[in-house]
């Protein structure tokens, strides 16, 4: 692959296959040129947007206006959950990016992933952990709305901690992507409010199309990226992808325990904190950045979701084992004994 020095027409830093992002000023960046079919690239962009659209419609179908109002009137749980989402995960992403001394474009990728709002996988995991489903759904809703302002702000603040990142992040493109997520989400809410019987159908169809589209993106990305996929599978990025979800789960639970929330709320906030909206992250990385800038790093969220799902399933398994083998509560034993004595008499 040839490297050619010269200005980048996009004004962004550009990927270098041997050094990551070039640290030179934007007017003298060297672009990482790799063969990308315009048709395949456009198809990946289109499918990525479709996946995001379907995901947000499905997310909207889980929302009930009455439950949202109830948590708004008693916002303690939601407030703590949103603070955990946008306080813990971006800090984890920043700390890991610094600790592993990532190149600037890798750091931006990790920060965007860490600053994303909660995803709908957290609702499934919260259900499996017998969490507070109303809080889970409302928290996912609120975090996606709050992300319109918080995500660009957090990216701007944390990018100050890295040299040569001040003008790298395409804030306008990210804002446009975030705003566009509200439309399908509103469609899902309208479906659930007007014709709730169709909500399960929409969610099942959404899940099926999501799986098919993800496979299609994987195949086309393999054709496009080819041998460069090893960049996403580097030891540093693999370590970060595996650390972020578990750190989010643990710190989210710890924070809610500090504020003395119920066990159900603790488990819910734990899942909501550690589960990011990976579809949104992929869409931002693929659509907002030119391919010569982001390179194969738009695949990083797919690595994160593998670890995110695996670690959540591990915690669910531990919880199920605990539920199965935990000793009965002392009060229940006394009540059972009293009941038995009464029946004998």
TrEMBL record:
Any coiled-coil regions, as ranges: none
Keyword Magnesium: no
One GO MF term attached to the UniProt entry: bile acid:sodium symporter activity
A Pfam family reported for this protein in Swiss-Prot or TrEMBL: SBF
Catalytic reaction list: cholate(out) + 2 Na(+)(out) = cholate(in) + 2 Na(+)(in); tauroursodeoxycholate(out) + 2 Na(+)(out) = tauroursodeoxycholate(in) + 2 Na(+)(in); taurocholate(out) + 2 Na(+)(out) = taurocholate(in) + 2 Na(+)(in); taurohyocholate(out) + 2 Na(+)(out) = taurohyocholate(in) + 2 Na(+)(in)
Transmembrane segments: 43-65, 77-97, 135-159, 171-191, 211-233, 240-259, 298-319
Main subcellular location: membrane
A GO CC term assigned to this protein in UniProt: plasma membrane
Entry's localization field: Cell membrane
Entry membrane topology: Multi-pass membrane protein
UniProt keywords, alphabetically: Cell membrane, Glycoprotein, Ion transport, Lipid transport, Membrane, Sodium, Sodium transport, Symport, Transmembrane, Transmembrane helix, Transport
Family listed: Belongs to the bile acid:sodium symporter (BASS) (TC 2.A.28) family.
Biological role stated in the UniProt entry: As a major transporter of conjugated bile salts from plasma into the hepatocyte, it plays a key role in the enterohepatic circulation of bile salts necessary for the solubilization and absorption of dietary fat and fat-soluble vitamins. It is strictly dependent on the extracellular presence of sodium. It exhibits broad substrate specificity and transports various bile acids, such as taurocholate, cholate, as well as non-bile acid organic compounds, such as estrone sulfate.
Protein name, per record: Hepatic sodium/bile acid cotransporter
Lineage, highest ranks first: Eukaryota, Metazoa, Chordata, Craniata, Vertebrata
